[in-house]
Amino acid sequence: MVVVVDKNLPQEKVEKIISELNRNGFDVHKSTGEKYIILGALGVQPGFDIRKIKMLEGVIDVFRITEPYKLASRRFKAEKTIVKVNDIEIGGNEIVVIAGPCSVENENQIMKLAEIIKSLGAKILRGGAFKPRTSPYSFQGLGEEGLKLLRKAGDKFGLSVITEIIEPSHFELIEKYTDIFQVGSRNMYNYPLLRLLGASKKPVMLKRGMSATIDEWLMSAEYILAGGNPNVILCERGIRTFDTSLRNTFDLSAIVTAHEKSHLPVCADPSHAVGYRDKIIPMARAAVAAGTDALMVEVHHDPDNALSDGPQALLPDQFSELMIQIKEIAKVIGKKI
Ligand code: PEP
Ligand code: MN
After folding, report:
1. Is the shortest distance between the CB of 185 and ligand 1 below 6 Å?
2. Cα 204 to chain center, whole Å?
3. By the 8 A CB rule, do 92 and 82 touch?
4. Which ligand has an atom closest to residue 296 CA?
5. pLDDT tens figures, 68-93
6. Residue burial 37-76, b: 16+ Cβ < 10 Å; e: rest
7. Could you tell me the CA-to-CA distances from 130 to 59, 103, 144, 171 in Å, in that order?
8. Which ligand 1 atom sits closest to the C-alpha of 102?
9. Which ligand 1 atom lies nearest to the CA of residue 272?
10. What is the pLDDT of residues 281-291, one digit of tens each?
11. Which protein residue's CA is at the shortest distance from atom 8 of ligand 1?
12. Is 270 in the pocket of ligand 1 (CB under 6 A)?
């Protein structure tokens, strides 16, 4: 941390800042320039609240030089993390495609979709059983029945499965059925849930909150990592901005920024980001070109009658076209699908 102090500050007040830094566990290196006194506060303390120093008399500014997260940071671990899900590796040279409906609706639906996505090259089947809906009157998911059907479809077609956990009390139930826990956008700040998932052996896909900065997103990942679970996948799913043309704004640059700041693998979810099926293929191409490690898309054979997110579900033919196109894009950047 670097503390910039007014050079005209009386000596005893400068000493007061230094002793405050010492009291908080920092060693201080002082250098005096033409206009400012620069105090180098040495010692990495990810949880330190820099406002404690910013508010002291004579302090002009305080800059962090280490991130507030540690375990999620590239500085802490330079080599990329590969998250293993059964025989699948997320974060390696192969881009993993996750596909399926927004919600598990019935056996026929999930079986049909599992067969389609498997035949087109997806590795992981998605499907919500507990849905965090914006309206309490919307379909909330089939609950345990949905989990059973998702597992059954995954097992039948040789697909791993991912489903969302929305509250801590569902942990044991969902852990029985899923290969990956999904933490949705609305729960990125649910710290008790994150702590609980830190104690799990199963991988966690952490979606970015709709108004979360990248550092806040990585701080949430830190909760899971600090709990002892190293298998975290970040997922960019669009953020809220001033523009309302689409469902959200797909922050493609988050893929490169997350890779720069963190060693954790990144997944891109263009479905929730743009919200309309005709825009998913170009955005999926862009996410692959930007270096995503995994891609998650919603697919439905009868989206007009889907119980949630029908407008953004790709039809099977569109999903097939998407797979053909992203395979070509992957080659250009030395990856495969
Ligand atoms: C979902 O994946 O179905 C979902 C609810 O996503 P998000 O949390 O990104 O809105
Ligand atoms: Mn959805």
Report:
1. yes
2. 9
3. yes
4. 1
5. 898 999 988 999 999 999 999 999 99
6. bebebeeebbebebeebeebebbeebeeeebbbbbbbbeb
7. 50, 8, 8, 12
8. 3
9. 9
10. 999 999 999 99
11. 184
12. no
